[in-house]
Structure formats: C-alpha cells, structure tokens
C-alpha cells in the first residue's frame, strides 16, 4: 500500500509545484483564484492511486481505499507546503504580501497565515475528494442477480 500513496503523493506534489512555477513564469501566481485548479490535480492523483490499488488487490476494502486516498493527498500537501514555505520565506518575500493584500484583511498580515491556510485547504480537499471517490470505487453490497 505504501508504494501507491508514495508514488502518487510525490507525483501530485511535483505537478502542483510545476503548475505554480508555470503561473509564476506567466506572472499569474498572485491570483488565488487560479489555485482552484489544484483541486483537479489532487483529484486526479487521488483517484488514480485508489483505482490502481483496487486493480492490483483481490480483497479491496473501503478502509484500505480511504487510507490510500488520505495518505496520498496528505503526502502531497506536506511536500507542496514545504516547497511553498521555502519559496515564500527564502525566494520571494513580496509574494505573500501580494496574495494577502488581495484578501482585504484588516489585521497584521504574516506569511505564516498563508502557509497555514494552504495546509488546511490541502487536507480538507484531500478528505472531501477521498470520500467522493470511495463512493465511486467501493465494492457494492448489492446482491448479484442469480
């Protein structure tokens, strides 16, 4: 099971990093609305991780599929959050201020709130998508027609 969530979790993180760097190259990285495509990247990776695990095991249980989905998205979230932390604190100090200015906050803004919200959004997206995909991929309890 570990090879599936490791492979797909790292894959999701790499695609997220490449997508961020592409938007940076195009000058669009400061628009938070474009991060909604991150959910599609998470969704694709989680779906394929669960589906491929189901195809290779004989006794696929809901619990195993749910674990694969959560671990895949969790690993991707941690890796991408580490990348964004390094990017914000080491490479581009104005990025966090530009994004937080677009949020129209009325209190002292720090880059840490951006990292915390990134982690929360990553884990919540992972949880919701895993629940949704397990409804599609779980084995039916309906009886087979005789």
UniProtKB/TrEMBL annotation:
- The residue ranges crossing the membrane are 7-27, 33-50, 70-90, 110-134
Entry's Pfam families?
A: DUF4199
Q: Where is the signal peptide?
A: none
Keywords in alphabetical order: Membrane, Transmembrane, Transmembrane helix
On the tree of life, the source organism's domain of life is Bacteria
Protein's UniProt name: DUF4199 domain-containing protein
């Amino acid at each position: 099971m570990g090879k599936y969530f490791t492979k797909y979790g790292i894959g999701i993180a790499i695609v997220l990093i490449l997508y961020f760097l592409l938007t940076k190259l195009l000058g669009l990285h400061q628009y938070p609305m474009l991060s909604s495509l991150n959910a599609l990247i998470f969704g694709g990776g989680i779906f394929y991780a669960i589906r491929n695990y189901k195809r290779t095991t004989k006794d696929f249980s809901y619990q195993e599929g749910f674990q694969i989905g959560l671990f895949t998205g969790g690993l991707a979230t941690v890796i991408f959050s580490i990348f964004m932390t390094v990017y914000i604190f080491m490479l581009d100090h104005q990025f966090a201020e530009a994004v937080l200015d677009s949020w129209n906050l009325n209190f002292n803004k720090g880059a840490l709130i951006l990292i915390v919200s990134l982690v929360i959004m990553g884990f919540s997206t992972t949880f919701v998508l895993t629940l949704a995909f397990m409804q599609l991929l779980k084995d039916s309890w309906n009886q087979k027609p005789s």
